[in-house]
Amino acid sequence: MSAARAEIRGWHVLAIILAFFSIIIAVNVTFAIYAVRSFPGEDVQRSYLQGLHYNNVLAERRAQAAQGWRATAALREDPAGAVLEVWLTSRDVSIDGAMLSGILEWPTSSQFDRPLNFESLGDGRYVARLGEITPGRWRLRARAESAVGALDFESELTWRSR
Predict the structure, then answer these.
(1) Which terminus of the chain faces fewer neighbouring Cβ atoms within 10 Å, N or C?
(2) What is the Cα–Cα distance from 45 to 42, expressed in whole angstroms?
(3) Cα radius of gyration rounded to whole Å, the chain
(4) Residue 132 DSSP symbol
(5) Global confidence as pTM
(6) 24-41 pLDDT, tens digit each
(7) Per CATH, the architecture of 68-159 is what?
(8) Can you state the percent helix, strand and coil of the chain, rounding each to 5?
């Protein structure tokens, strides 16, 4: 009795190649689906329209820079949780009486974004009490307005829970 000798024929090679590429395509499609579900790519509403009006934004920022306002922001710990502090100055003179509005954004998902309510503490210092926030990198986007001018500013902040 002789053992049947296994031969690789053309249809075997075709089946192996088709199976290999089917697995590769299935894995790529799965990764693409998970990537789009976790971050759809557009985190800003009406980004196309914002792009059309970007020259207006640049002109406004040049005007803001000419007035000499500066904003500095930091996160600090408080017994009730995190506190966001903003200091407003105009050529090294503190700015009091400004109205601040803003949002604290989690860069990869808008579900963690927090609108901010600032209170003035005097001497150009403004605070927003946040309570508990997720540790990591945050982006502050805010606007300060007073009778003499306005300032749009952004800041990258890092929070580490203690």
Answers:
(1) N
(2) 8
(3) 27
(4) S
(5) 0.66
(6) 999 999 999 998 887 766
(7) Sandwich (2.60)
(8) 30, 40, 25
